Known about the structure:
This protein is an alpha+beta fold. Helix content is 25%, strand content 30%. The protein is built from 4 helices and 13 strands. Strands 1, 2, 3, 4, 5, 6, 7, 8, 9, 10, 11, 12 and 13 form a 13-stranded mixed sheet that branches. A hairpin with a 2-residue loop joins strand 1 and strand 2 (115-118). The longest helix has 34 residues, at 18-51. It is elongated, with a radius of gyration of 41 Å. 17% of the residues are buried.
Amino acid sequence: MTIRDEVVRFAPVKTKPFGKRIRKKRSSIAAKAALMTAVMLAGTGVITLALWGKLSWPAFGYDRSAFAETTASVPAAKAARSSQLLLASIDDHATSTHLFETPDTYGVYAVTDGHLIPLAPLPIRVPDARVAISTPISTPEPAPLPSGNLQFAVYHRELATSVPDSASVRVVAKVMRATSFADGKPKQVQVEDTWAVRGGSIELRIAPVATNREMILIRSADPAFTLSPGRYVLMFRNQAYDFSVAGTVSDTAHCLERSELQDGTVYSECHELPAAQARL
């Protein structure tokens, strides 16, 4: 073996630079990661499209069926009913927010023609509606409201955290005649300025005022409900608030007769109204 052969056999092998191998390896890893990300995104898109018709819509207060009912495939009658319900809901909301301005002071008010009329409390404790009649009162009748188609507004700081479940209206009847007995014979006399709150009640609904948490509306479930002429109280939180409705009294519920008997005083509804009993 020659020296040349030995040199060739032991000559060092040329290797590629280490840095180039690392760069190529990193490039390969990055390419694989990009490919994997693309595959995942594509799969997510396919799954989303597949589930689109099955997933619930975001909770914005709408029902998908409401949108579906706007298509031409829905019968006209059904679409009309949906529109009526929507309009009724809008009207209710408008009534609760735009009837009147917030009053300057806390209190209980009658709402008539967009105006607030403050109501004064009666200076007596009115018994439960199951009791036929309250103790007599001599408080003068308040100035009458022009219409019996009324709502009521209560404005108080406590309403922001506590709202009663109910409110009602009760009749305040005037004692027109009194009958006493002398020697076994009845004697009738006219009675002046004596009233009493009658048993029974007209139940009302309570609604919030969206623009003011310290205020509520009290109204009948029937928008067309109207109180007949006469005197009434609004019962709210066991307190009676006095008001009257203008016009000629036509309901005998607003008229009482008093009889003085040996066993005590008895009140009864008038059989008929006096000839002249009117409100201005």
